[in-house]
Amino acid sequence: THELLLNSEKLNVAGQLAAGIAHEVRNPLTAIKGFLQLMESEGEGNKSYFDIIESEMDRIELILSELLVLAKPHELKFGPIDLISLLENVKTLIDTQAVINGIRIETKYNYQNFTINSDKNQLKQVFINILKNAVEAMPQGGFISIEVKQYGCNMVKIFFKDTGFGMSPEILKRVGEPFFTTKEDGTGLGIMISKQIIENHGGTINIWSDEQGTMIEVILPIASERLH
Ligand code: ADP
Ligand code: MG
């Protein structure tokens, strides 16, 4: 356990560093983009070069915005969050994209209330990352199920299952490594960031996958004021 703790502390420092760098890089990037747009509107230079520069800058921005989720701990606002409402909220966000891709999202909540002490936006980001991956794993359509169950007396388990193409053992082993992606336009940051956030909440993420699909289990502590 000692080694594990050290390891996650190390990750945390790396995460803070990444967030710091992301902040620093974003300002000059915004300035460059502004000038680029100006030059483009004045009709100087080669249109296809502008297009390349712009799409590469969009990519830098996407990576930065993902890294920024690992904001410095003092910027986090932890408070009581209703887990089911948050999941419903995220489901609504993803639903349009799911429907377009022929994917149905099914929820099993058992009508229980779970209050999590959390930074709402961070937890939301985790659920979005997981559900986006599920959608991206089902180009031919399929099912996603979200199930919430109490675990012991003070934990809750959230299961995300998809019927997508799954991961080979080799891929599964590498998932969560920074920048590891099998997608042409992936960043390979979603799972790493999600793991980091859940660990910051005192929880864990476990992943199972085969050619039938993928299951991601998120375990979180229930806020103590709601214990009975
Ligand atoms: P990205 O989505 O940008 O590739 P992630 O960290 O979110 O980065 O995921 C890393 C890799 O893990 C993906 O490229 C994919 O290979 C694999 N993966 C994650 N979730 C799933 C899933 N639900 N089904 C199949 N593969 C997945
Ligand atoms: Mg992803």
From TrEMBL:
<protein>
    <recommendedName>
        <fullName>histidine kinase</fullName>
    </recommendedName>
</protein>
<feature type="domain" description="Histidine kinase">
    <location>
        <begin position="20"/>
        <end position="224"/>
    </location>
</feature>
